[in-house]
Amino acid sequence: MDILDELAEKFALTLDSQLCNNSDYLKATAMLNELVREFPIKKATEIEDIAADLTAAAFNTGIRSGLKLGARIAIGLIGSDK
């Protein structure tokens, strides 16, 4: 595993931990689960799949953004040593 993969994994774990401790995220998840119970099984599964896709897309975008920011900071720090 190279350093970028390791950083991405660590960042993903940190982001996941932060998200799971975010009261707004937990509230929205609970509301979605309550809403899904009102639908037939097939429709509920479709809604859950869409929500999972949205969550994964946002999560992955957050990781990429964090890594880009980290790279900019590193370049800035390296450049300031010259």
Report on the structure:
This protein has 82 residues and is mainly α. It has one domain (9-80). The protein has helices at 3-20, 23-36, 41-80. Helix 1 packs across helix 3 (41-80).
Notable features of this structure?
82 residues, mainly alpha, 3 helices
In short:
The chain has 82 residues and is mostly helical. The protein contains 3 helices and no strands. The protein has one domain.
Low-confidence stretches: none
Strand content of the residues, in percent?
Answer: under 5%
Helix/strand class: mainly alpha
Sheet bearing the most strands, described? none
Give the overall average pLDDT: 85
End-to-end distance: 30 Å
Would you report the number of β strands?
0
| Shape label | elongated
- Estimate the helix proportion, in percent: over 70%
| H/E series | HHH
Radius of gyration of CA atoms, rounded to a whole number: 18 Å
- The total count of helices amounts to 3
How would the blueprint of this fold be written?
Elements: H1 3-20, H2 23-36, H3 41-80
